[in-house]
Amino acid sequence: MKDATVPLPCKEKFAAQTRTRSSVSPTKPAVDLHQAQAIEPHSCGGLEMAPVFKVLDQNSSSRTGFMDITKFAIPEIIFGRGSLNYAGQCALRLGAKKVFLVSDEGIEEAGWLQRLMDILEKEGIKWVYYPGVTSNPRDFQVEQGAEFYLKNGTDVIIAIGGGSAMDTAKGIAIIASNGGRIRDYEGANRVQRPLPPMMLITTTAGSGSDISQFCIITDMKRGVKMSIITRTLVPNISIVDPLILRTKTESLIIQSAVDAMAHAIEAYMSRIASPFTEIHSLRAIDLILANLQRAVATRSLDSLEQLSIASVSASMAFSNAGLGAEHALAHALGGHFDMRHGVVHPILLTSVMRFNMGVNLQRMADIGRLILKRQVGSDQDTALAGIEKLDEFFATFDVALRLSQLIPESERHHLESLCKMAVQDACNLTNPRPATWEEFLRICEEVW
Length: 448
Ligand SMILES: [Fe+2]
Description:
Blueprint: H1 10-18, H2 33-39, E1 42-44, E2 47-49, E3 76-79, H3 87-93, E4 98-102, H4 105-110, H5 112-122, E5 126-130, H6 139-151, E6 157-161, H7 163-178, E7 187-188, E8 198-202, E9 214-219, E10 224-229, E11 237-240, H8 250-269, H9 275-298, H10 301-321, H11 325-337, H12 345-357, H13 361-372, H14 379-395, H15 415-424, H16 426-430, H17 437-446
Helix pairs in contact: 3-5, 6-7, 8-9, 8-10, 8-12, 9-10, 11-12, 11-15, 12-14, 13-14, 15-17
Fe (ii) ion binds near residues 259 and 263.
């Protein structure tokens, strides 16, 4: 089974439990205790305790105030060209005898699945293959997969693929060990029992599912992507082999990178960001800006490797800091219109950044300075100029920049109900300024 969480000292638990919002200065906006607990509670001797509690001075780039306890959870990461070759040894370390493999058609066709099977067989490991993965993985696929996992007496779950394959594997792990329906676990910290050991091998540089405690599954009945967030979804091992990126299409490289960009920016602006996540956010933004155009134009292994590093950095940040309103809206739209996750970020991201600007100007100015490599007049000027530059950056790629390019006019009337769903998405809770459905709708109209 997966490693148990290292318990924190109990005195910290009691300190956190006795702290209430009333103890916080009313002049400073505070993280909502109940919301924050729902996002990232810590464990202390099996009990839930409060997450990172700090008073956020929304006008400060350094997030002044107290910061008592924080936590940074990541898997063991095996990174580098050829690291896929270590998959067999890694699986053995997790106790693999008969592994449950999850992948998709694209990876099969590119030959990576067979390569992995050969590597496992070389170590004497048997496998059972579950091929039921599509983009935007569905609830029934996960539930069927769990049945298949249990029926075959398999142990370690290994996914090789993009976010869809890895999220399918995570969903299967939840149902196989906790039972019920996948929708029972929507939201934060609803998974009680430990999961089977997991090793995730990413074939894209963006989704971050191989690093994160997130799992996104579509509820077919409601037509919405559910965010399932829990610490045990962090896999035991993540293998990141940049050589795999060479078989990716141009559009997939772009979609993955802009997804990673959105992860980095939303994590940096998150209400529960910490010094340990902020540094990874900034590094990821910088690397994507510096390498994406070259990666698309030349497919050089060096630039693809830099995008992989950026993706890992962005994932370490968002997994621990959470995301924001842009992802909340992207999940609602993506679930209903069955669009690839990466296509919506160039449309929504800068609009949501403008929406957030008034809440924490200095932090948006930090991002602006990173994008522009300089200060341009006031912080407000710098933040705005950075956002405009990011729009220009997205426009250099062959991507949709308006919502109307993805959604037909005849379907536009669905936006109101989808915006109401986005309000409920767990990602909206960590946005510096949780959006109302009317505000989400205004953003959609602005980018239509
Ligand atoms: Fe994402």
